[in-house]
């Protein structure tokens, strides 16, 4: 099973989601992350994401930002978007119904059919990152239980 987490810049939310889910599943489940934009390509996750992950015993310092690619549809079984904008951007690149069916809103795992967004904490403070961590931890627990 290969799962991709996607946000805008791949430095705040999706690296956290990648780290959280990887910590909850066996090593034969591959979890990666990407961004719909290439603004931060090659960069480490935001220091605040690194800090909140570390607080919960998760190391995300080996991750590097990358942009979502069309070939990700072939490489991954599930693709989780952090918010509606990411979801729409990913779907716009899908060319088949099979590819579209792989794309999900991550918080629909913990709050089915509510289409909730994971807020982007980039311009906020530490508490925003803590809140995002809690949301993602809950969703990733549900995902892990289904694998």
Care to describe what's here?
With 147 residues, the protein is α/β, with parallel strands linked by helices. It has one domain: Response regulator (Rossmann fold), CATH 3.40.50.2300. The protein contains six helices and four strands; from the N terminus they run E-H-E-H-H-E-H-H-E-H. It has helices at 13-24, 47-55, 72-75, 84-93, 97-101, 126-146, and strands at 2-7, 30-35, 78-81, 103-105. It has a four-stranded parallel β-sheet with strand order 2-1-3-4, sandwiched between helices. Helix 1 (13-24) links the parallel strand 1 (2-7) and strand 2 (30-35). Helix 1 packs across helix 6 (126-146) and helix 2 crosses helix 6. The termini are close together. 41% of the residues are buried. The mean pLDDT is 96.
Find the CATH topology.
Answer: Rossmann fold
Low-confidence stretches at least 5 residues in length (pLDDT < 50)? none
CATH class: Alpha Beta
Q: Any guess at the CATH architecture?
A: 3-Layer(aba) Sandwich
- Nearest-integer average pLDDT: 96
Strands in their spatial order, largest beta sheet: 2-1-3-4
Overall shape: globular
Structural class: alpha/beta
Instruction: Count the DSSP helices.
Output: 6
Q: Hey, roughly how much beta strand do the residues contain?
A: 5-15%
Order of helices and strands: EHEHHEHHEH
Largest sheet: 4 strands, parallel
Number of strands: 4
Keywords: Hydrolase, Protein phosphatase
GO molecular function, one term: protein tyrosine phosphatase activity
Protein name: protein-tyrosine-phosphatase
Organism: Tenacibaculum holothuriorum
């Amino acid at each position: 099973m290969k799962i991709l987490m996607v946000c805008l810049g791949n430095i705040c939310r999706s690296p956290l989601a990648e780290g959280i889910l990887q910590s909850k599943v066996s090593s034969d489940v591959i979890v990666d992350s990407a961004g719909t934009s290439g603004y931060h390509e090659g960069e480490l996750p935001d220091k605040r994401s690194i800090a909140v992950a570390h607080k919960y015993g998760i190391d995300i310092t080996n991750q590097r930002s990358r942009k979502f690619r069309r070939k990700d549809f072939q490489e991954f079984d599930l693709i989780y978007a952090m918010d509606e904008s990411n979801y729409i951007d990913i779907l716009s690149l899908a060319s088949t119904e099979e590819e579209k069916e792989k794309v999900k809103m991550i918080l629909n795992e913990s709050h089915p059919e509510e289409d909730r967004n994971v807020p982007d904490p980039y311009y906020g403070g530490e508490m925003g990152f803590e809140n995002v961590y809690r949301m993602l931890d809950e969703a990733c627990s549900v995902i892990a239980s289904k694998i």
